[in-house]
Structures
1.
Amino acid sequence: MSDETDRKTLIAKQFIGALPHAKELGMTIVDVGEGTATITMPYDEKLIGDPETGVIHGGAVSALMDTCCGAAVMAHPAALGGTATIDLRIDYMRPATPAQTISTTATCYHVTRSVAFVRAVAVDSDADRPVATATGAFTVEGAA
Amino acid sequence: MAKRPEPVQVVKQRRDAVLQSLVEGVPYIQFMGIHFDRRGDELTGVMPYADKLIGNPMLPALHGGATAAFLEVTAIIELTWSSLWVRMEAGEEIDISSHRLPKTIDFSVDYLRSGLPRDAYARARVNRSGRRYASVHVEAWQDNRTRLFAQATGHFLMPQKDD
């Protein structure tokens, strides 16, 4: 791992600690690369959206997706400052299995001077069948 | 001869009881602190400001995920509420605990301006509600109704009888 990646990892870890809502949902950054990020969110009963089945609410998955995409943008070499979501679309493929941690990986697949295009996928313990996918556009700040 | 209309407090009590059980039954809605104002059949979602909803502490601004969640909660409650309305108005006893909620198929959020550290409001409109699928649009604002800070469209799978 390069010094640059070490630095980014440190920044990213501090970044999530500084986001009260992400912290509240128990999110942890597990990996950061150039324009990529992986974040986990543990299962918690307070996040249940369907009391019959114990499946967590789509809103909590949205929060995880948004945070992870934002982290991927900030980890991109072209993004010097912060970022804001312009739009985010989430497709829910299947209910997340109750009691399992959700892990999301986001990738910036194209970055211009002002916009980053990001894709993300969320899985639970069964990593072969995605729980949800997301595509979004984010602002790129700090560029001239 | 026409039936005498029910006393207004009976009608209100029934509507409020259905709405309350709908909202209180979902832990995540409680966690987010979201509640609903009702005027007749019109619902307004209210998400009072809380520090835990902040995403960027420097600005400060609401977390985009908290905004998305608020919009999605409002869409699901409105959709469920409007699908129960006819039965509720007919005076049917509705047991919410056995009623399945619609499932989100996809949800697409536009962030129009950053969410301020203030209370947020949202209203949803069911544009199409079929037997299996529904399409819902939802708008959120803070201090000014005409200055939206986010809007979203979502598609939902309606609960089926044999679910």
2.
Amino acid sequence: MREGNVAGQFRKSVFFWATLLYADAAGAQNVMRRPLQKNRKGSCSSPVVCYHFPFRAMITIVDYKAGNLTSVRLAFEKLGERAVVTGDPEAVRGAERVVFPGVGAASSAMATLRRTGLEEALSEAARRGVPFLGICLGAQIILERSEEDGGTMGLGLLPGTARRFGFFDPRIKVPHMGWNAVRPCRAHPLFAGIPENSEFYFVHSYYPDPSAENLRLAVTEYAGFEFASAIGRGSLAAVQFHPEKSGRVGLRLLANFARWDGGC
Amino acid sequence: MLTRRIIPCLDVRNRRVTKGVRFQGNVDLGDPVEMAARYSAEGCDELVFYDITASAEHRPIDLAMVAEVARTISIPFAVGGGVSSLADMERVLLAGAEKVSVNSHAVLNPALVREGAAAFGRQCIVLGMDPVKAEDRTRFPSGYEVTIRGFRTRTGLDALEWARRAADLGAGEIVVNSVDADGTRGGFEHTITRLVAEGVSVPVVASGGAGHPDHLVAVFREAHADAAIVAGILHTGEWTLAAIKERLREAGIPVRRVW
């Protein structure tokens, strides 16, 4: 009787771990299975090392009440990645991999980051060199300052300013909303396997303007104006578009981030 | 270059997609989650779900369906139907929708648009409007009057006036759904779509009347719409998204490629 229970427990436990392993591999392979293009430069060559369940770093999605994080969390779930949404500065400080999303106004976002102690925690995580991905507002407030709300100080993780689109033609819509082509300026692990000029989903009125040319990872053209749609240096990268809402190419970028060691 | 968006519209009733001409004679078309997955894989740029009878029957939106769609697809989608409060908006957005669409309740309570934009960001708030041709040019300078409750009630509001006001209040996008063209598959209504597209600073989506890819070419070229909603043209299987996009590309209209 007792033995039967132990055997049952053991079988259940084996089943549990097998399921987790399978779900992890299957989820990750959904995107990786069909390569987007032949050249997989920068991608991991050994799926066993890449996808073995217990050794994948946890992804920490920073919650600072700047918009809805549901789709970011769901995107990593679809990839079979382990991701946690948290606003706890201690968790962010010790994170192995940071995603810094956000939509909305820069000034209220920065006020929240200061009040909660997340500003320090994010700077510390970035300093430690853990892979760091800013998304949308996250790509703007990692800069030194933003033109939003009459001038707002940013986190200063990269030199530069977030500027407002200044079109003279009132027929040009701001926000820039919809799918637009992203052209990488150089090879970067985040864009591995993603065809050049793939369209990603944008919705924003401000854009990142880093102070050095080599901080631009990718550019996008809107109404004749070219802006940096991805920026970064070292283990820090940020995209103005929303990879979590950009279909297969977006999931591929997030999968690339989940496997990125922070080098480039 | 920013591409023009093609947005399939799924009218959902009791968890089934239906389609009819001017809300008459609805037929069952399939499961909303399956259809969303299929259109997404085929390359639609966004999706919109209307819980078409929610408003008339005072039924809440099917949040379980919204959550399932969010778990299934990775492109933006909007949800509408009887959204009347900030709490309604929050539930829809937290279930995973990118945008929430307001229509009748925005007319009855314009503060809803302002408060929604302040709470969730204007990119989340879509104003749907159902204009109908109006003869009285003194009352309706644009020549169109706004109707609500699925075209059942006239409001006395001029369509262009209302679109401008809604954009000022914080609507991040405006869907112009023509009652005269809806479900006819005879082409979009260009006049009011163009007036709104040129009259507001936010993106404008043309809706109602798509029956052939050339109708989309025309509404993008002549009415300057930023996006177009399609329904019957896809649901009947007569045209695929790939074929529609191919036709647009040939006509020189930028559309998103799918890998």
